[in-house]
Amino acid sequence: MTEKSRPRGDFWRILPGVLISLIVLAVLIFLIDWQIFFTALKQANYSFLLLALPVYVVSYLVRSRSWHILLMEEPPFKQVFLTEQAGYLMNNVLPFGFIFAGQTQITVGLSSIINAMTPLFAVLVMAAVSVVVAVYVMVAIPVMVGNSL
């Protein structure tokens, strides 16, 4: 792959993510009541953010470094860090936007059914994670000790 063709390939690779982000932002901007939004911003206490910011930055750097080590330092640290931040964006920010959009579109009856089912889904997810962890431990211990299955 030549250097001239690489930027164009990178553009096409990130284009779907950029388009999805722009569409979500446009929808959210359309749905926001700006007067309530700015009133809430004026009433917020920002001193807690100053205390939390260094903790978040250090935790992100530590997690990125651990992935960098696990990947045997093959990709550059900057690439690992940026990829991890993109994953956090997709995992944390977008679901809340979808929840907000869903709350504005669904009826009260459906909303109460979904809210009532939340504990059941939490128990099912917890059980599934427990099974996966148990299987992993049962497979990993013999491998770590030196005996294969």
Can you describe what's shown?
The protein is an all-alpha fold and 149 residues long. It has three domains: 1-44; 49-105, no CATH class; 108-149. The chain has helices at 5-31, 34-43, 47-70, 77-105, 108-145. Helix 3 crosses helix 4 (77-105). The protein is extended and about 65 Å long. The two termini are 42 Å apart.
What percent strand? under 5%
Order of helices and strands: HHHHH
The total beta strand count reads: 0
Low-confidence stretches: none
Kindly give the count of domains.
3
**Residue-averaged pLDDT:** 79
What portion of residues is helical? over 70%
How would you classify the helix and strand content by structural class? mainly alpha
**How would a crystallographer describe the biggest sheet?**
none
Radius of gyration: 22 Å
- The rounded distance between the terminal residues' Cα atoms is 42 Å
Number of helices: 5
What is the global morphology? extended
